[in-house]
Amino acid sequence: MDSRPAADPTRGPLVGYTIAVATDRRRHALAATFESFGARTVSVQAFRTTEPGDEDELREATAVAVGAPIHEVIVSSALGLRAWLAAARRHGMAQALLARIAEARLLARDSRAADALRELGLTQIWSTAAATTEDLFRYLIAQPMTGRRVVAQLDSEPPRELCQVLRTAGAHVVEVSTFRSEPPKHVDVLRRLTDQIVKRQVDAVALTSRSSTEFLLDQARRDGLDDELLNAWVSDVLATGLGPLTAQPLLDLGVPVTVAPVAHPDALVAALVEAMPRRALQLDLGGRRIELRGQGLVLGGRLVPLQPGPVAVLRALARRPGVVLSAAEIRALVPGWSTVDDHAIEVAVSRLRRSLDGTELDGNALVQTVMRRGYRLAT
Is the pTM of this model over 0.90? Predict the structure, then answer.
């Protein structure tokens, strides 16, 4: 995991929130985008993309591909195209595959993929300026696709969401996966993320593929933490998915998921940026408007960062402003605090007050101690 501070910790709609980005990389470009909106991020390699693809799946997909004329062929990578052709040769379908490809419109992700097609004697090749597989799909999605037959060579999992979009648009799509999705080499990566979700140390999780969702759930089940994980997602931690395939394992378990309207990283970011500010707890205290976010307090347009203990206490008190809560009641309201003693809560309150020193709020006046009874948030 890689946790980094936001580029500007005082501005942006995601200031005060920590977003876990679960992808097939140690550091994904999504993290930098979230940080540009003010978030802190935790980068998690929730799954690995490896090659070659499953031999049986390649054989079956190739057989389906050559079974009827193809209108569009998407080539995600030169390496993947060559692996696909090699598999077709092993199963005696290379000539049939080349004949079908030659009849189709060819869409190559980048110059290398285009060159690999030219090596086969093909010259009419389409591409986009962005040189991404996602843009090839978006190009097709913008056109009438009813009855069109599309064969997509995929070298990663996220474009499967776009295959589903094409199917919804009326196309018949054959996925040729020249990769495998596998769990991370070290399961502690998933365990740490589970722990952070359960302890509410992250406020949202951006999931980019079905594998990222399934591997996280599977590891939590093996560790006996699946119920705690699901409860955190239902109550406090926002689950966001690149598309319906990514979200489905959680939806099947009753977890609400914010799904990007279009299966594209930019749309996932936009959906999360829109959703997170609505989850902030807003209060009028002492004539001041405050907004309690995941990891801090926004006061006068400025973020006051808070440690996990103080922010947990403040969140518990803010849910019942003006009401005295005993240490036992605070423990019951904070997930994972069943074994926290009264002294630890007293320390958290003290740290909360110190964090507010020098702000427009007087921490001692805001969080009041009621002798022998507990604490309350002044109104």
Answer: no
